[in-house]
Amino acid sequence: MPEQAHSGSLPLSDLKVIEICSTIAGPACARLLADFGADVTKIEPHEGDGVRQMGRHVQDVSLYAATILRGKKSIALDLKSEQGNRIARALIDQADILVENNRPGVLERLGLGYEDLRQTNPGLIMVRISGYGQDGPYSGRPGYGATCEAVGGVRHMTGDPDRPPARVALATTDYLTSVYAAFGAMTAVHERARSGLGQVVDVALYEAAFSQMEPYVPAYEKLGFVPKRVGPNLPTMAPNSLYPTADGNWMLIAANSDIIFRRLTQIMEQSELATDERFATIRARGKPENMKEIDRIIGEWTRTLDAPSLAARLIEAAIPSAPVNTIADIFEDPHFTARDMLVKVGHPVLGHTTQTGVVPKLSRTPGTIRHSGPDLGADTDSILAAMGLSEQQIGELRALKVIR
Known about the structure:
- By secondary structure, this protein is an alpha/beta fold.
- It has helices at residues 25-35, 63-68, 82-93, 106-109, 114-120, 145-151, 172-195, 205-210, 216-223, 258-267, 282-285, 288-302, 307-316, 327-331, 334-338, 380-386, 391-399; strands at residues 16-20, 39-44, 57-58, 61-62, 72-76, 97-100, 125-130, 200-204, 240-244, 250-254, 321-323, 342-347, 351-356.
- The two termini are 32 Å apart.
- InterPro entries: CoA-transferase_III_domain (IPR050483), CoA-Trfase_fam_III (IPR003673), CoA-Trfase_III_dom3_sf (IPR044855), CoA-Trfase_III_dom_1_sf (IPR023606).
């Protein structure tokens, strides 16, 4: 297992973060901050974050929680109780950043809205992640990444044209939103260095999804163009698709630029395709009828080669391409190992779990995985003791079910 860096040497080690989040986008945002050294305290309800029930489990240990909650401390508090609310407020008063992804209005009803919190902590940066933002006609609606992909136009674009809209079986919009949220937090921290004041970072899942529609916004406004599903292809760009191999696998070939397309036709021994008026330019190949035909021609060629042989030819010709990896393939891939993207992290019950590595890579002050995700409420006592509570007071709070 890699040697873990001291938190004080990490770039965000001077930041205190409180997380009041559930499931994916909020916890993933706070995990990004923790990976780079932020002191993240996660406040959970007594039943725990729902992410602890998601994904696969071993010996009743949530493998998902072990990674998305890594580097954090956990305190289990009843925020609806007077004492629990007071403890949360005291923690937030000492924080630089509060990350929350509740439905708009929930924290306000608990007395933990931004206007309340800024009275005692004017430098607080409150990162608010929700389905549809803190205002607007949809703001009160519950929203998950999947529903917000539909609202933002992304789901309409996903899948094959002759089938209903599909989905990627991953929380892509949640993770994209978490990166926007972390970027917003760092932007606000930078501005606070000048003004001394905090602010709200309002991040909406549907807006993160919609941001991927960037090229189609002006295209619709000026041309009335409504994009449609194109399956594995890249709209208006070809060849850029999945092609079958002789051994039943698939190869992604992205030879859409004219120079790279010419190289592809050469290794196919069909150089005449590069001068065919249907395929000679990016714009010509992007026409639907020409795209379909060039994909057919390339597919006939790739079917004559098994995946390893095809991959070798494409790499030698410097043509952007890749086999469609499974997770099992990734564990055997030397590049993932060389780039520290499969990291063994110690675990008190399982010995270790292998987790995705830290992204992005910083040359001088890289992030690190300090420890696996904690059990629910694992740090409750130590956090309260650091706040000055005695063992007797902590015991009384436990007896009153304020803490777990």
